[in-house]
Amino acid sequence: MALPINIEDLIEQRKVERTRIEYKSDWNPEPIIHSITAFANDFDNMGGGYILIGIEEDNGRPRLPIKGLNPDSIDSIQLDLLNKCNFIEPRCIPVIEPYTIDKKEILVLWIPGGEDRPYKCPEKINTQKGAEKSIKSYYIRKGARTLKANIREEQELIYMSRDIPFDDRINYHAEVSDMKSALLADYLHTVGSDLYDSVLNRSVEAVATDMQLVRGPSEYRKPINVGLMFFNEHPERFFSFAQIEVVDKPDPTGIGMTEKIFTGPLDRQLRDALAYIKNYIIKEYVTKVPDSELAIRAFNWPFPAVEEALSNAVYHKSYQIHEPITVTITPEKMEILSLPGPDRSITDAQLEERILVSKRYRNRRIGDFLKELEIVEGRNTGVPLILSSMKNNGSDIPVFETDENRSYFLTVLPIHPLFLKSSKKINDKQVAENSTRRNRGELRLLVRKLLTENGDMSTNEIASALGYRKLTDTLRAVVNKMIDEGEVSYLYPDKLNSRNQKIALIK
Prior knowledge:
Distance between the termini: 52 Å
Oligomer: single chain
Helix content: 25-40%
CATH topology of the largest domain: Heat Shock Protein 90
Largest sheet: 6 strands, mixed
């Protein structure tokens, strides 16, 4: 058996968040059992976590080269681990998988969020005869640390036990065979999992079991919801309106309106909807700046912002609510609507300030699959990316809206002013000034890059390397500002008009 992820990506934290990974240089039962319990409790609904035994930690990163475990100890560690897991109440057994990395043996423990939470385990593990039994406590994750829960956190854990995230629940109206082998294989191949090598020679049930997509006794195995969302061609059969609708509304009366509906596995419908928006909705505006060799370039909506906003909608929507995700395009804005609204851990003040840092995820398994496919970013990075993309495009800042009951979440992306059909032509001077400011920042980076790669250069050499026919006023201004701020200097400051004068980068 192998894990349904790429092990190198896991070790290097490329797709799984740092807070969900623990490195242990060797088998040390007590802290490892505490962390297994904490990951299973999944206090933030992040999807559990991973413990990598045989890898030392260095400031939150794996210390390379990998230390590894004694190959002769692998079997005994696994046996002892299984015995120690009996101390967890209710019993919780992680997925245990040995791997050989750079000729070193390690053990990887995968602990999904448990369906029987809350879990507790002994504070001290002592198996000697006559030893006093240790108090059992609840453990949770706080950032990248495993901690004993306090009284308030214990109460919250007990309350959470009534609510397993919907995407991680058993679907009693479906069969394991409703998940398709080809879709499972395609996913495992895409993420680079070693499990792909055997997927075509095994049953859907066997592969889905390894991927933690089925549950129940052997005589009554059933798929969980996320398995049907990603590995069935028609998830809308099980989750009404699990789809994305893109409505292009060029006129308030509806004249000329077009509507596209995207269905299928969640990752496919998201990709298809984004491809449609990118190819048919996103437009670029390019015009020359008066009296300059520079050009104004802007998009009606920057694609990275749209991509992130729509991906977040797929990630955070409730699939118990039978409404689609809708993208509505008008001449003034793009609106992305999903139901319900954000978690109440995000305050109204934070929403107004566009600080959307959720303490708890609605769909822990959907997030895992989307991150493994590199469709969404890691924890709480989506909104900053939307804001920076809009700013870099010269667009107005987006608006995030919900109501008092948090019944919906609306992301409003204003169209770039250059594309406003209903307004008068934008003041060319103002546009040119805004564009010049952005282009000066880009020029500054390019000048620094040229000097780093080529050493000292004259301003004419810099202009030529950047593709200009001659030294422009804008480039001259950029170089002068870099000199004033001490980023570069003249090679011969006492001979400013020398033919041999060059610009030198100050290290």
